[in-house]
Amino acid sequence: MPSAGLDFGTSNSAIGAATGNSAALAPVEGASTMIPSTVFFDFADLKSAAYGRAAVDAYTSGVDGRLMRGLKTILGSSLIEDRTQVGARRLALSDVVGMFIRHMKSKAEAFAGASIDSVVHGRPVRFVDGDEAADRKAQETLERLAREAGFNHISFTYEPLAAAYQYELSVGREEVVMVADIGGGTSDFSIVRIGPDRRKKPDRASDILAHSGCRVGGTDFDRNLSMDAVMPLLGLGTMLTRKDLPVPIGPYADLSFWPTINLVYTPKSVREIREVLADAAAPERVARLLSVAERHLGHRTVFAVEAGKIGLTAEPQGRVDLGFIEADLAADIARPRFDDVVASEMQRLRVAIWSCLAQAGLDAPDVDTVFLTGGSSLTPVVARTILEEVPDAQSRRGDDFLSVAMGLTLEAQRRYG
C-alpha cells in the first residue's frame, strides 16, 4: 500500500505518493503538482466546495460565496475552532481545513491508483512562538483532521528537514547544510549533516544538528505592505472631524490579513464604517473602505498586494493595481520602502538563525551550504538577510515551492515502505 507526504502550506500545498520502489508528487490541479491552499463555498451550492485556482477563479468572477485562505496561520489559536457563517451553514474553521486535507488525499490516491492510509505530515518548527501548549495543540489538531480524513498512520517531520532530504539527493560530497524554508506563514531553519553515504543510514538522528523557527512569512510581508501603501488610500491615518481622533484602525488591520478579511463584511462592521464615514475628514478615502466592505473586495485587495510584492522581486519599483475599487486607483511601491516596512521581520529571521547556530554548537563559517526554499525566500531582502548571517556558505536552491513536499514523500517512503 502506498504512503503519502503532505505539505499543507499557508499559501500553497502539495502531496506525494510513495511505494517501496518510487516516490513522486501527485497532480493536484490539472497537471500541476501544487495547489493554492484556498477553499470557496458557492452560496447557491453549499453541498460542494471549490479548491485551489478553481476557488480563486470562482471568487474573482463574482460568484456569490465565501473564499477562505491562510487557515494554517490560525492553527494553535482558539480561532481554529471558531464557527463561521458560510451561507446558511455555520462551519468550524477546522472543518474547512479537514475538507482541504481530504481533497489532497483523494488526489494522491487517484495518482497512486490505491487507497493510502499512512502519511508523513509536514509541520513548521514553530506553529506558535513562545507557547509550547499552543504549538502542541496545533499539531494535535492536524493529526486529528488527518485521521478524520482517513489516514490511520500519521507522523510528522519538520518542513526544513524534509527539504534537506530532498536537497541531499543532488550532492556528491558531505556537507553541513542550513535549510532556510521561508513560506507564507512561518520561517524555519534546520542544520543537517548530509551526504551520499549518510542518506543510506536507517537512523539520521545524529545528523540532525538543530532546528529553529518563527511565525514570520509572506502573509506578514503582505500585511505590512498593505498597511503602509494601500490602506492609507482607504482612509487609514486620516482624522475624524468631531472627535479629533484618527479613524479606527480595526477594519484596516482585518482587511490586511487573510483569516480576518471576512470580519469586515459583517453587517455590524459595515454599519460602523458608515458611522466613521459620516465623521470623516477625508470622506473620499473612507468611502473606498465602505465600498470594499459592501462589495466584498477585501480578498481581491490582498491578492493585488501580493501581486505587487511579487513584482518587487524582479523590479525595484512597482504598483498595486486597485482599479477594481475605483477607476485608476493604484498604490506606487518601491523596494527600499518595502525593505523598511519588513525590517522587524528580518530581525526575527536573524535571531532564528543565531538560535539555530547556537543549538548546533557551530559558528557561521562551519556551515558549508545554505539551501533556500519556500516562495517567500525569493523576496530579495529575505535572501539577502539570511545570506548575510552565513557569508562564507555557498547558496543553493531547489524547487522553491515543492522541495518540502518531495522531501516529505521520500521520508514517507523510508518510514512506511
Number of helices: 13
- By DSSP, the count of extended strands is 18
Q: What does the largest sheet look like?
A: 6 strands, mixed
Structural class: alpha+beta
Mean pLDDT: 95
Whole-angstrom Rg: 22 Å
Distance between the termini: 8 Å
Describe it.
This protein is of the alpha+beta class. It has 13 helices and 18 strands. The strands form 5 sheets. Strands 1, 2, 3, 4, 10 and 11 form a 6-stranded mixed β-sheet that branches. A 5-stranded mixed β-sheet has the order 14-13-12-17-18, with helices on both faces. Helix 2 (93-112) crosses helix 3. The mean pLDDT is 95.
Characteristic terms for this protein:
417 residues; alpha+beta; five-stranded mixed β-sheet; 13 helices
Detail the topology: elements first, then pairings.
Elements: E1 3-7, E2 12-18, E3 23-25, E4 35-36, E5 38-42, E6 50-51, H1 53-60, E7 65-69, E8 83-86, E9 89-92, H2 93-112, E10 118-123, H3 132-148, E11 153-158, H4 159-168, E12 175-182, E13 187-194, E14 208-214, H5 218-230, H6 250-255, H7 267-278, H8 283-294, H9 298-314, E15 317-321, E16 330-334, H10 335-341, H11 343-360, E17 369-373, H12 380-389, E18 394-397, H13 403-416
Parallel strand pairs: 1-10, 10-11, 12-17, 17-18
Antiparallel strand pairs: 1-2, 2-3, 2-4, 5-6, 5-7, 8-9, 12-13, 13-14, 15-16
Helix pairs in contact: 2-3, 4-13, 5-9, 7-8, 11-12
Question: How is this structure best summarized?
Answer:
The protein is α+β, with helices and mostly antiparallel strands and 417 residues long. The chain contains 13 helices and 18 strands.
